[in-house]
Amino acid sequence: MKPKNVQNDHPLTVQEQYLRKHKNHHRQVAFLRIFLLGIFLILWEISADAYWIDSFFFSSPRRVVLCLIQLWTERSLPMHIGITLLETILSFLLVFVISLLLATLLWFSDKLSEILEPYLVLLNSLPKSALAPLFIVWLGTGINTIIIAGISVAVFGSIISFYTAFHQVDPEKEILIRTLGGNRRDIFFKVVLPGSVPTLLSTTKVNIGLSLVGVIIGEFLAARRGLGYLIIYGSQVFQLDMVISSILLLCVIAMLLYLLTQSLEHCSKKHRN
């Protein structure tokens, strides 16, 4: 009978224990999330059935499901969801492109960055909901106005974040590129931009939510389609089941978009490693 090779088996056992502990942790977190959501829905339904809350104003899970089924059978729900998703994704992509281009321009021109920085901070601090009526006057009602509203909520903070990330790269790497004969363009594309990828990706996770917020603000004021329109329409005709259903759908969409950007961030980390 051969003795076990404890020295070789022990590292593998430790690794297996770590992986098992890691998986169990994620399972517990997922279970608790679902459990808390289930408890909330059950208490909500019981409160409505027992008349602890007025279901006309607060609705109930059953009424929300029936409202969603009705909207789906009328074939209006997929259209409203699709419009909001399209506007959000277009706003998000334009925010990323505009932010990257302007932050790059500011990095290459120190004088221009000194001139524009206070204006960017000022524009970022403005309440974007106050700008939406101006967009309607300037651009009229339609998808263009809503996309601009979505861009306005996220773009200024995104430019500042991108530009700040460009200046947080290891200066020793920049010195190394200069020592090897590289110019400012080489420093940016070989050191600054690759080194800023983690910050850029983390900023996009915030931007996707802000773009959705801006789109909903635009739909409140200038839309005849979309989940924001359903919320306003439902509140005007006192169909609060429709309002709450649309809000819950927005929560689901926001979570799915966040998970999508998070998966892109994880793929980028694996690629860099």
Automatic annotation (TrEMBL):
Spans traversing the lipid bilayer:
30-53, 81-108, 120-140, 146-166, 187-217, 237-260
Major localisation: membrane
Q: Does the keyword Cell inner membrane apply?
A: no
Its GO CC terms are: plasma membrane
Listed A to Z, the keywords are: Cell membrane, Membrane, Transmembrane, Transmembrane helix, Transport
Where it sits in the cell: the answer is: Cell membrane
Q: Does the keyword Transmembrane apply?
A: yes
| Name under which the protein is recorded | ABC transporter permease
